[in-house]
Queue: 2 jobs
Job 1
Amino acid sequence: MASSSIKVPVILFFLGSLFFQATLAEVTCEDLPKNLCSFAIASSGKRCLLENYKNEEGSLDYTCKTSEVVVERLAGYVESDQCVSACGVDREFVGISSDAFFSPEFAANLCSPACYQNCPNIVDLYFNLAAAEGVYLPALCEKQKSSPHRAMLELLSSSGGAAPGPVAGDLAEAPSPAII
């Protein structure tokens, strides 16, 4: 009984903090510093993304841009450092790839209660990325809890991570590899 009475204020505080953060200021991706760009959502509802480019001196520099990807529920949201840490992501990565799912450590971090239950922006991003690869993130996380190795095997088999090898009879018909 006591645990349910504690959950309600915590949930209300979390929802209120999301609303308060969105009303504090207009979030514009191009105005964000590079250390806040990744995992931020502009007030327009579009995801921010970190891009690299060569500056006038020829060295690598970074800029924050607005993507075309819209997140309807979290407009004006900048992910907390606690969530970035709990989910095992890095704000300085340029681009995002489904390759992260093939790391058991990443999947364990993403599926951990500290991330999965408290970091809706990161979870939403990777939920959509997993779906694009034919993987249902809640099912992957459920498997991750009970059998992390099986979860990785199923992920590899569902995403086509490994190409099938040639059949013995096919070798005679296969073209010889070109030497470069």
Job 2
Amino acid sequence: MTTTVDNSVENIENTLELDHVESHLHPEPTFDVDAHPVPMGLEEIWRFTPLKRLRGLLEGTASDAVLQREEQLPEGVSLGPVPADEARALGVNAPFDRLGALAAANAGETLLLDVPANLEADAPVHLRLSGSSVDDTVWAHHVIRVGAHASVTIVVDHAGSATYDALTRILVGDSARVDVVTINDWADDAVHAGQYNVRVGRDASIRLFEISLGGDLVRTSVNVDYAGPGGSADLLGVYFADAGQHIEHRQFVDHTAPRTRSNVEYKGALQGQDAHTVWIGNVLIRKVAEGIETFEQNDNLVLTDGAKADSVPNLEIETGDIAGAGHASTTGRFDDNHLFYLQSRGIEEAEARRLVVHGFFNDVIRRIAVPELRERLVEAIEAELAGADLSGLDRRPQTGTPAEGGVR
């Protein structure tokens, strides 16, 4: 099956005429692999990532391996390959780092998920991607194109074992409404590098959920910009790291148009020796982006000794004419007040702690529009907690940077 690229997405494929902003936090995007040097591990965008655990992905050796794919497509939605040159011509940002550029270069073919203009999908799109061996290096380049005034929910489910590097570029047409839910429920030995580059059209909105539960190493980045005023982006995440796992999420929201909006909210829990999570958030408000509103927040709940959470919010402002901007970050143990409230009503301490964890995640999970998916995630969190001894933890105060440097 071959899908032809057309121009049905109004305005969204136009190149943004904005100068690149020099920053160590967001290098200039390009498909040129050689323009992204092999990292040494000291660079700002790589310093938290254990490079040796990427299992050679940065070397970029081509491979014919693929993930098994199952798909459920509502009527009117199509999925098929497009030529690489046509896929790259779609007007959404090129890769921001070497992993993204290698994914596009080595993918072999680009899959285009096409939601035509004005379509209101009657069911979610569901893609299930699974691997059979961590020795299989798999490269992927996906494009999701949602036409003007369309409405759709897209679920991408990862499972099994693989060494996987994927670039996903998402174009949201004018006045479209899109939910994208990505689930990283890999086997314990899997390695997953993912980059999601999103362009939001005029008066359009996207909610992108990231759920990271499995894998030896998961490193993803989400990069958003705006093709016109009125666009809105919510980036929401839930992650749970066990002993030895490294889970890293990075977001860059580039407010390239006036009267746009963004909200970033990621919540994570850690348990076990050497469990490590990393969250890096960055919002850039350009001079042209007057009247925008943005907030980013990351909260981490450390459940056992030996686990470590790194959380770094950033805010770059080039104009004073904004409706609101700020960020917050917290990392800590259980809240004494919550535990006291539950125990005072006869709930045992260990059960009270489990209820606190569920409540911690529920604010994000409840916003997912697919009921069976919400139920599955609640069960997955319960399964993670089943292996933890929560009864003997000390109660340390939370630390963080509430709305540090923000304007609200």
